[in-house]
Amino acid sequence: MGFQKWPKREPLKHFFPVPNEIFILGLSPGEIAVYCYLLRTEDRQTFQCYPSYEAIGKAVGVSKNTVAKYVRSLEEKGLIRTEPTVVRSKDGRLLNGNLLYTICPIQAAVEAFYERQLNMAGRQHIAPLNQKGGEMVC
Q: SUPFAM superfamilies annotated for this entry (predicted)?
């Protein structure tokens, strides 16, 4: 019985890079899935893409409303920026198009994440020091 040789994998063909830092940002699995889909569809020169909520949802297995929630969260965390687009219908009317997504540099999102962590740690550490017998002391 012969042994099967697997085809050699080409480094960037049919693959897309995901920054390692994505796994330290406390993202939910759904946020990671949507972020990865956006990375997969982005233009590597402009870092932009414009898939619909429906296309993203179908690819990652969630509803359009859930995609919208994850997109807002990714935007709040500094991973993406969105801009509305318009399209012209056949009869000349302007209609809302898909969002234009810009993938932001990961370093800014990591810095913002650590800043939020420090702020939360500072609030948790300071609050008990300001309490005396259940009353707040100024």
A: Winged helix' DNA-binding domain
